[in-house]
Amino acid sequence: MAAPPLIHLQDIHLTFGGTPLLEGAELALGPRERVCLVGRNGSGKSTLLKIAAGQVQPDDGTVFIQPSVTVRYLPQEPDFAGFADTAAYVEAGLAPGDDPYRATTLLSDLGLTGTEDPATLSGGEARRAALARVLAPEPDVLLLDEPTNHLDLVAIEALEQTLTGLRSAIVLISHDRRFLQNLSEATVWLDRGLTRRLDKGFAAFEGWRDQVLEEEESDRHKLDRKIVREEHWLRYGVTARRKRNQRRLGDLHALRAERLARKANRPAGDVVLKTQEASRSGKLVIEADNIEKAYDGRPIVCDVSLRVERGDRIGLIGPNGAGKTTLINLLTGKLAPDSGTVRLGTALEIASLDQNRDSLDPDASVSQTLTEGRGDSVMVGGQPRHVIGYMKDFLFKPEQARTPVSALSGGEKGRLMLARALARPSNLLVLDEPTNDLDLETLDLLQDMLADYPGTLLLVSHDRDFLDRVVTSVMVAEGDGVWREYAGGYSDMVAQRGSGIGGRPAVGEKAEQKAAAPDRKSGTANGGPVDKSPSQEARKKLTYKDQHALKVLPGNIESLTTEIARLEKKIADPAFYARDPDGFAAAGKALEEAAASRAAAEEEWLRIAMLREEIEGG
User: Fold this and answer.
1) Which of 48, 218, 295, 382 is the most buried (most CB within 10 A)?
2) Domain 7-207 - what CATH class?
3) Taking a C-beta distance cutoff of 8 angstroms, is the pair 136, 106 a contact?
């Protein structure tokens, strides 16, 4: 018999500002269970977690927490007010009888001394202090809201190991796919105010979600067809009767009301991410020769040589403070090296996304940020476009045009930064932590956009899954200013290096061969040449775009085949041309377009099917 839940939220309702946020949401957590809570930005995930933590009271519903169960909640923005140092902040989270030594140990394990002034903490230091506070009491229940925010890869992997060894039941909210896959055993999807539970980890979630949405779409089509039949009866079936069938008419009104409600409750639209392509750059994009950079005697970049060619996609990874942003600034000419040379290729047009959102003016409105204060149009790819239409591509509502940046959520600020960067034509994209605060659907679309981007990419990210999906090689900070390049994504780097970036690379002749950098016909990066295998160039899994296309293309092909047959039959009528020459010409043109569309759909389906077979066979 299953143990009773430690926490059980039932039929939770909550309305903010007249808009329903939660409409019957549920959450149950058993002993030592690990659940990930997923959903779009703004769907109410953090609010549901706050209700479970007792920090927010619902309008309606039941919140049950077993007596004597200890609960600790990690907020996205910890409050350090009133604490002299980080040690006092962490110790305040201990319950009577808890061992204070554990607080000191956790602070040390997380790279803090306990003497830090909370007012001067960086984002990563604040997050580590907040983690120490909730982990120190070893609670029965841990509610973690974006625990990996501001953490580097070393800290994220260490946190995974710590959470794996805990006896606590855990609810996780995170946009880090790999983190969720490694830790979760069940998934709760919060969507349009309701929750659905899948008793499998996050790895199985996305396929299940797509199936649920497809079934909803099918149900909508069935409802539309039923309404059409009833409306036909209303127009033609009643005319022969003296007395209208009031019950059937009432059913039709009820069906229309149901359709209206379903339309109002449809999932929010997708972000439309498109890069504005500039003219092609030269084959050589960047050539760095023995560049070095140091600050206050500390080497940040030491004797790095690198050749970047058109179409390369390079990820830069390393601990916070290793110099990833410095290296990018050196490679793009924003910063001069202390020694060595950097040569930029011809016809380069660079678009950058800076991780520092302080570059957004908090007092400027969304529309002013996009238009740079000039009128109501934004230049997208050199062409003017009304700012409201461009905002909608990034899921901003028209009424948010005058909203100040300071009032936006973290995810909204991230989308605004993307919107501003992607409006500029480019053939070199420089993205510094682009995935911060983006929901999973937007990450999917950003990944697909980058897959189709014809230019060159330099990417700084702590998201292991995103790196695996996007880049063709990674530059890793090995310490003391040494940077080494590895072919493939993050997982390929771990396999070659023998460890994640938290450990030292394996030593010996075999390890040196593994760690050698990919040869781009000329040029190396701290490690000597090695061939890039075809398997490293191939995707490890189908993109969401390809998966969706594989499902819908057969139906599209069938519809086009039916349309082609109809047009051919119509054109075969010998009297058609004499009766309607213009209609005959239009039908002929439509037939040509339908045939071309079917051929293109068949070719695309075959391409994806072959790619899937290659991936599954590999």
Assistant:
1) 48
2) alpha beta
3) yes
The Cα 62–Cα 45 span in angstroms is 17
pLDDT score of 197: 95
Q: How confident is the model at residue 223 (pLDDT cuts 50, 70, 90)?
A: low
**Tokens at 586, concatenated:** 């239009």
Q: Which helix (H) or strand (E) is 31 found in, with range? A: none
Q: What is the pLDDT of residue 159?
A: 92
- Token readout for 466 is 């995103």
Instruction: Name the H helices within 477-543.
Output: 490-497, 509-514, 534-537
Task: State the pairing for strand pair 276-277/425-426.
Answer: parallel
pLDDT beyond 90 at 198:
yes
**Residue 98, token pair as written in the block:** 């808890």
Q: How far apart are CA 10 and CA 203, in angstroms?
A: 26
* Rounded CA separation 426/456 (Å): 9
Return d(Cα 391, Cα 57) in angstroms, integer: 34
Lookup result for tokens 């500039």: 278
pTM of the model: 0.69
Report domain extents, the chain: 7-207, 213-264, 276-349+425-536, 364-423, 544-617
pLDDT band at residue 246 under the 50/70/90 scheme:
low
pLDDT of 523 over the 90 cut: no
- Domain 544-617 maps to which CATH number in 3.20.20, 1.10.287, 2.40.10, 1.10.8? 1.10.287
How far is the C-alpha of 530 from the C-alpha of 513, rounded, in Å?
Answer: 8
Contact call for residues 272 and 393 (beta carbons, < 8 A): yes
Kind of pairing, strands 194-198 and 276-277? unpaired
* pLDDT of amino acid 538: 39
- CA-angle at 203, arms to 201 and 209, nearest 5°: 90
Q: Give CA–CA dist 84/540, Å, rounded.
A: 49
C-beta separation of 500 from 521 below 8 A: no
Measured CA to CA in angstroms, residue 427 lies from 199, 248, 274, 608 at distances of 44, 61, 13, 26
From the list 2, 133, 7, the residue with the least C-alpha distance to 64 is 7
pLDDT in tens, 554-584: 888 888 888 888 888 888 887 787 788 888 8
Radius of gyration, alpha carbons of the chain:
28
The answer to whether 103 touches 87, Cβ cutoff 8 Å, is yes
d(CA 7, CA 65): 5
Would you state the structure tokens that stand for residue 97, as one six-digit string?
């009888």
SS3 for 280-341, per residue? CCCCEEEEEEEEEEEECCEEEEEEEEEEEECCCEEEEECCCCCCHHHHHHHHCCCCCCCEEE
Could you say which of 1.10.10.10, 3.90.180.10, 3.30.10.20, 3.40.50.300 is the CATH number of the domain covering 276-349+425-536?
Answer: 3.40.50.300
State pLDDT tens for residues 286-321.
999 999 999 988 999 999 999 999 889 999 999 888
In angstroms, the CA 390 to CA 410 distance is 19
* CA-angle at 310, arms to 307 and 314, nearest 5°: 60
Helix (H) or strand (E) holding 74: strand 71-74
Q: Is 21 helix (H, G, I), strand (E, B) or coil?
A: strand
> What distance in Å separates the CA atoms of residue 364 and residue 402, rounded to the nearest whole number?
8
Q: Which residues contact 228 (CB under 8 A, 6 or more apart)?
A: none
The DSSP string of 480-542 is TTEEEEEESSHHHHHHHHSS-TTSPPP-SHHHHHHTPPPP-SS---SS------HHHHS-SS-
